[in-house]
Specification:
The structure is a single chain. This protein is mainly β. The protein has six domains: 27-151 and 175-204 and 243-271, no CATH class; 281-397, Immunoglobulins (Immunoglobulin-like, Sandwich); 405-516, Immunoglobulin-like (Sandwich); 540-742, Immunoglobulins (Immunoglobulin-like, Sandwich), CATH 2.60.40; 754-854, Immunoglobulins (Immunoglobulin-like, Sandwich); 858-960, Sandwich (Immunoglobulin-like). It contains three helices and 62 strands. The strands form 15 sheets. Strands 1, 2, 3, 4, 5, 6, 7, 8, 10, 13, 18 and 19 form a twelve-stranded mixed beta sheet that branches. A hairpin with a 5-residue loop joins strand 40 (608-617) and strand 41.
């Protein structure tokens, strides 16, 4: 199968093919795919699928028994054809396949060259048959990627287009490993026969959408276009304007876990006719999502506007068939496979069929399965056959875990919940003990119902559920001991997550709710009675242990009250102990904390946090700690004076929830001695809670007023909360904050100006004007105050500048000016970013404006001919005079056989037609690769790589002449 040649022999073989023979025209399309072969070696099966013209290029197709490959590691091989089958009367599919072992990991570009392309391809330079067909695929060879395969393209590139009608193609790409695929357009490539391992974009290529007289889209609403959907792979030309054959190319990228691990290129031909035939119409097919084990049945229906007969076909990994319809071996998806149920012969319009697929656990994966349906008409011999395509996606997810149960357990602390569920039905094919497929356990407080679709997988943070643990997929129990609190009702759900590369998650299980047994008190109130810096007072209340029966023994009991300073304080100190028999009618669950002379209670400056420890008497007569309450703190109110208003924020830290309630705001006009009047009721959700008092009130009976800057206003907030547990305290829990006072401001503060920058128009006129400049400037102006804002008047403005953007950005003060414009001059480049701030007469600097940035207009022009004959004119090959903002240039020149002739780091290049050893080179065509870095905003931006050719002319073509 394989013939190994030296590099020079390979070139010689290729050069022996006469490029001018008319029968040498035959290559329509092709792509290279790879599959790693099982075993410890890095061995790959490499396949070139090439489509040949069997009408005009039969003799050339007959002779195409070998194709030259480059393996990316310096190895070149001639590979024999293993099959050639007509896929329609005009086109054959040809398979060149071999195996190759790489000696180590790396990124390798595999390429193949066939001489020649099809003749009369009108968007390529003419004659197009002289252009070699060069195709490439890039793979990442890495044992860590497992038995990775590139995507395979299941839909052959055979459909034709009609002038004025939208044409679409989809390659039906499928990745058997479940990797993500993305698509982008490319330019067909060629290679010099003397340098078969290096490809470059075909010189003279034209985008087909600009070919023809006044190309317009099918709806005639704009110009024609050619694009590919990056997600679905739908490639559409809307629409052709000139009959003939065209070649285009696109790339399929393979991504895993956010990393690009390979890409393949399809170079394909489109035949456009001026036929009167209209393409068929396919009924829309919606995307599907099903649990593994479901039977999927999708009806297919197509009609033809001209009443022609129609044939239905379908492509996709689920059918396990290659573009010729032959089953893959080994299969690219696990069985059972899908099938298109339809009559074998063309049907009278409308044509009907059904896709039927019995799914299984082995089909679960994170990526959807793409399915492509094709309807092609049979218009007769005088018209061109047209096709319609419809793609849709099928997502197969793991079935919902069943039978989730939750049981509180007695432990040393009494805080544990044991979960159990039915053994999961979709275990991985490997051992559950070694596979990384896991069962994920989620928990949230409260038992609100979960609104989700029938195929919703996983649990997002927006649902309130948090991941608390994972277990191997073969395990069906989990014990939760993390941060459980009494008085809280907990909801649990579980999800199966499958290992990469296939990945994917199951549908979320039904939820289960559970309460912890209440063997300890619950705090129900921590309210500020008095606000003072020495004589503050707080009342603390709690429940008796709801789940404890005094008749079971343990008396006498004791509550020990602990206090810490601050909303989240942890410096708990015991401040009292209360003995109880838990008998009805005894007031033993309240404590009024007034502090002590040694430790006064400063409720003006601090919030305070409390905890109750509960003790019972052991049979030996000793007090033993049973459990402790969750700590609860007094609400803390903060005031922020603003222009004729006061902003209130308050925070809580309690075992009960204060969200989804209506809190009450009180205000006094005469300080702490005046009466506090209710002025607002504030629905709250999410801390910190907020309210802005402007003096107006919507409450009945409350007189609105304008807050005076000469008055001191005092506020107090009543918080309202509730325990989530249905067995804990029922009803609302009310707690007051301390009283806080403030006066509104009588002036505004500086606002952020609105900054703008005169940006460069990167057009030829602007670039020409910049050619000879060495000093540059940027014009900035700003608006202050911005429209619709009330701001303190500005006395001056500070303008800040950074030469770079991104992580390297560092601003410094450029100028302070009383005006609202500035010309930043004497710059070495226009690139830079700016922001401006306003400064009041009081010297207060306001917030930064928006940031505006200017980038360069990169330009680097290279001629395509020079004459190094020492006549003083055009003796050097160098960039044009209008190359601006250039930082560095790296240049390499190659001869027509791919040999390196000359290299330099000189920004002006100045190649005099000699090689690096100083020897004059003959007249001819030379290829260059020039890497240019521009002094733009982003220092990490990739360089611009220019590839092309330059013609060297000498007198009579003689070296030294």
């Amino acid at each position: 199968m394989l013939t190994r040649y030296t590099f020079w022999l390979g070139i010689g073989v290729l050069l022996l093919l006469p490029p001018t023979w008319t029968y040498a025209t035959h290559v329509r399309a092709g792509e290279i795919t790879t599959r790693r072969i099982p075993g410890s070696a890095l061995r790959y099966q490499i396949t070139l699928t090439a489509y040949f013209d069997e009408r005009n290029g039969r003799l050339a197709a007959d002779d195409a028994n070998e194709v030259a490959f480059c393996l990316g590691d310096g190895t070149t091989l001639n590979v024999r054809r293993i099959s050639r089958n007509n896929i329609n009367p005009n086109t054959s599919v040809n398979i060149y396949q071999f195996e190759y072992t790489y000696q180590g990991p790396g990124v390798y570009q595999i390429s193949a060259i066939i001489i020649n392309r099809n003749d009369q391809t009108i968007n390529l330079r003419q004659p197009s048959l002289d252009i070699p067909f060069w195709i490439r695929t890039t793979i990442q060879v890495n044992a860590g990627l497992g038995l990775n395969s590139t995507p395979v393209l299941l839909n052959p590139p055979l459909d034709s287009a009609r002038i004025g009608q939208r044409f679409c193609h989809n390659p039906a790409a499928f990745d058997s490993d479940g990797d993500s695929l993305a698509y982008r357009m490319a330019v067909p490539q060629e290679a010099n026969p003397g340098a078969i391992c290096r490809g470059f974009n075909i010189n003279g290529y034209r985008d087909p959408s600009i070919v023809g007289p006044n190309p317009r889209n099918e709806a005639n609403t704009g110009p024609a276009s050619l694009s590919i959907n990056a997600r679905t792979g739908d490639l559409c030309w809307d629409s052709p304007a000139q009959a003939g054959q065209y070649n285009i190319a696109f790339i399929v990228e393979e991504w895993r876990d956010g990393v690009l691990i390979g890409e393949i290129t399809r170079d394909m031909q489109i035949f456009v006719s001026d036929s009167r035939n209209n393409r068929p119409l396919l009924d829309p097919i919606p995307d599907l999502c099903r649990e593994a084990g479901s039977l999927i049945e999708v009806p297919i229906r197509a009609t033809d506007p001209d009443g022609q007969r129609l044939e239905l076909t379908a492509f996709g990994g689920i059918f396990n068939r290659n573009p010729e319809g032959v089953p893959y071996n080994p299969p690219i998806v696990p069985p059972p496979f899908g099938a298109l149920i339809s009559v074998a012969q063309p049907q009278t319009s409308p044509a009907n069929g059904q896709i039927r697929w019995q799914t299984a656990c082995a089909h679960i994966r994170q990526e959807e399965y793409d399915v492509l349906v094709r309807a092609v008409d049979f218009p007769g011999r005088t018209a061109t056959q047209l096709a319609a395509l419809q793609s849709f996606r099928i997502r197969i997810v793991g079935p919902r875990p069943q039978g989730l149960r939750a049981t509180p357990q007695a432990t040393a602390t009494g805080r544990a919940i044991r979960l159990s569920w039915n053994p999961y039905t979709c275990l991985p094919p490997t051992s559950p003990s070694t596979d990384s497929t896991r069962m994920l356990v989620y928990r949230r407080e409260g038992c609100a119902p979960l609104q989700s679709g029938t195929c919703t997988t996983g649990l997002s943070p927006s649902t309130g559920y948090a991941l608390i643990g994972t277990v191997p997929i073969g395990t069906n129990t989990f014990t939760d001991t993390t941060g459980l609190r009494r008085g809280i009702q907990y909801s649990y759900r579980i999800v199966a997550r499958y290992a990469l590369p296939a990945g994917g998650e199951s549908v979320v299980s039904d939820g289960v709710c559970v309460d912890l047994p209440l063997l300890a008190p619950l705090i129900t109130q921590v309210t500020v009675d008095s606000t003072d810096n020495q004589r503050g007072q707080i009342t603390v209340r709690w429940t008796r242990p709801i789940g404890l029966n005094p008749a079971d023994g343990g008396a006498p009991f004791q509550y020990r009250v602990f206090r810490a300073t601050g909303l989240t304080g942890t410096d708990f100190t015991q401040i009292t102990a209360i003995t109880s028999s838990l008998q009805p009618g005894v007031a033993d669950t309240v404590f009024v904390d007034r502090g002590t002379a040694a430790q006064p209670l400063n409720t003006q400056a601090n919030a305070y946090r409390y905890r109750i420890d509960f003790f019972q008497t052991s049979p030996q007569g000793a007090l033993t700690r049973v459990d402790a309450t969750e700590p609860a703190a007094s609400p803390r109110l903060t005031l922020n004076p603003a222009l004729r208003q006061i902003e209130l924020t308050w925070a809580t830290n309690t075992p009960w929830s204060n969200d989804n309630q209506t809190h009450v705001v009180f205000r006094s006009r005469r300080g702490t001695a005046g009466p506090l009047v209710e002025v607002a009721r504030v629905p709250v959700q999410g801390q910190p809670y907020r309210y802005t008092d402007t003096g107006n009130s919507t409450l009945a009976g409350v007189q609105s007023l304008s807050l005076s800057v000469d008055s001191n206003y005092c506020y107090r907030v009543l918080t309202v909360g509730r325990y989530t547990s249905t067995t804990a305290v029922r009803g609302l829990l009310l707690n007051y904050s301390q009283i806080a006072c403030a006066s509104p401001l009588d002036t505004t503060r500086p606002c952020a100006p609105r900054l703008s920058l005169d940006s460069l128009a990167c057009d030829p006129a602007t670039q020409q004007a910049l050619c000879n400049q060495t000093s540059f400037s940027n014009n900035l102006r700003w608006q202050y105050p911005p429209a619709g804002q009330s701001c303190e008047p500005a006395d001056r403005y500070n303008l800040y500048y950074s030469r770079l953007a991104g992580p390297a950005q560092s601003f410094s003060l450029v100028t302070t000016t009383p005006t609202t414009s500035f010309r930043h001059q004497s710059l070495t480049t226009v690139a830079g970013c700016y922001y401006v701030t306003a400064v009041s007469r009081r010297g207060i600097e306001g917030p930064a404006s928006n940031t505006v940035c200017q980038d360069v207009c990169p330009q680097f022009v290279l001629p395509n001919v020079f004459t190094p004959n020492n006549d003083g004119r055009n003796d050097l090959w160098q960039p044009g005079s209008c190359s601006v903002f250039v930082v560095s240039v790296e240049t390499v020149i190659y001869n027509r056989w791919g040999g390196r002739v000359f290299s330099t780091s000189d920004p002006q290049i100045r190649w005099d037609g000699r090689n690096s050893a100083g020897q004059e080179q003959p007249s001819g065509l030379y290829y260059y690769e020039v890497v240019v870095r521009f002094g733009g905003l982003d220092p990490s931006a990739p360089p611009v790589v220019l590839k092309g050719w330059v013609q060297l002319f000498r007198e009579n073509g003689v070296v030294g002449g």
